[in-house]
Design goal:
The protein is α/β, with parallel strands linked by helices. The protein folds into two domains: 3-220, Spore Coat Polysaccharide Biosynthesis Protein SpsA, Chain A; 231-327, no CATH class. Helices cover 41% and strands 20% of the residues. The strands form three sheets. Strands 1, 2, 3, 4, 5, 6, 11, 12 and 13 form a nine-stranded mixed sheet that branches.
């Protein structure tokens, strides 16, 4: 098989019922297969697939392993030249898969690619999760072409040429299976959020490009599993951003630069936590604290082989914010 299009599902029965028919129809006649991998859903998702889509292959996992663990376990059971990771709340356009396959076939230097991501609700605007491809600033904050903070731009064709980016959203991501296996898939520690950015970064450290192919278009509903205002989602984003920097920054910019950036990020996180405290958002305050505690527990030891840096000790600025946190 050339391409395996794999949905990792967790309690999104309604989205499978809505979007799976179009996805299955879109690959008809191609050397491609749609697979639904399920993270132990409790809403009858697999029963729905079995009843309405008996020809769709199902992979049933024994518990919820998150986005990272779920895809790692599911794709270990799939043989194909290309993997496509796709969310259950994606509506694909007709002919969306062909441009991605053709790009990968003709550009061996490309390790992963993705389509232009538009909003399901406002179809002439980019969607928040990935828009026209992602970038990252010098302090490790991620952003997208076609998105500034929480606002998205209208699609006026300004990003209609294929382009190299820093990352492509995991909402719809094509990757060479050989590279997926070589890199060990996604980092299991992340569970969910920013794992695809970490993976794309690791791909580039291997010498491969990550690119957007806007001739392929999909529409993303967004927020299908976790709402934007979820404290747990906030914690995952703070924690995983630090884990991502810890994984890759020293190998990209050197250990001294990596240590400095991570220290500053800890400080800036505390600044945002202070703002949450002033607003009375106690769940968000707790989320940042837990994110930092889990980062320190989960980060791998520094050693010469991994290239990871030591960040022992907090700067005076961080200690000052900690003082404010405890005394205000």
């Amino acid at each position: 098989m050339k391409t395996a299009v794999v949905i990792l599902n967790w309690n999104t029965r309604q989205y499978l019922q809505q979007f799976l028919p179009g996805l299955v129809e879109s690959v008809r006649g191609m050397d491609a297969e749609v697979i639904v991998a399920d993270n132990a859903s409790e809403d009858g998702s697999l029963d729905l697939v079995r009843e309405l889509f008996p020809d769709v292959r199902r992979i049933s996992l024994d518990r919820n392993y998150g986005f990272t663990g779920g895809y790692n376990r599911a794709l270990a059971q799939v043989e194909a030249e290309y993997y496509v990771l796709i969310n259950s709340d994606i509506e694909v356009s007709q002919g969306w898969l062909g441009p991605l396959e053709q790009w990968m076939d003709s550009h061996p230097e490309c390790g992963a690619c993705g389509p232009k991501l538009l909003s399901y609700y406002q179809r002439d605007r980019f969607e928040y999760a990935g828009a026209a491809g992602g970038l990252m600033d010098r302090w490790g904050y991620t952003y997208c072409r076609g998105r500034i903070m929480g606002r998205t731009a209208q699609d006026k064709g300004q990003y209609d040429s294929p382009s190299s980016v820093m990352w492509v959203t995991g909402a719809c991501l094509m990757v060479r299976s050989s590279l997926w296996k070589e890199l060990g898939g996604l980092d299991d520690r992340f569970f969910a959020h920013m794992e695809e950015i970490d993976f794309c970064w690791r791909l580039q450290l291997k010498g491969f490009k990550v690119q957007v192919v806007p001739q392929s278009v999909v529409y993303h509903l967004g927020g299908g599993t976790l709402p934007q205002n979820s404290p747990w989602k906030l914690k995952l984003n703070y924690r995983n951003n630090l884990l991502m920097l810890d994984n890759n920054l020293a190998l990209s910019k050197g250990k001294a630069r990596a240590a400095a950036v991570i220290r500053w990020r800890l400080f800036l996180d505390r600044c945002s936590q202070f703002v949450y405290r002033l607003k009375g958002q106690k769940d968000y305050v707790k989320a940042v604290t837990e994110a930092h505690e889990e980062f320190r527990r989960l980060r791998k030891p520094a050693d010469g082989r991994s290239g990871r840096c030591r960040i022992d000790g907090l700067s005076g600025r961080i200690m000052f914010v900690e003082y404010l946190k405890k005394n205000i």
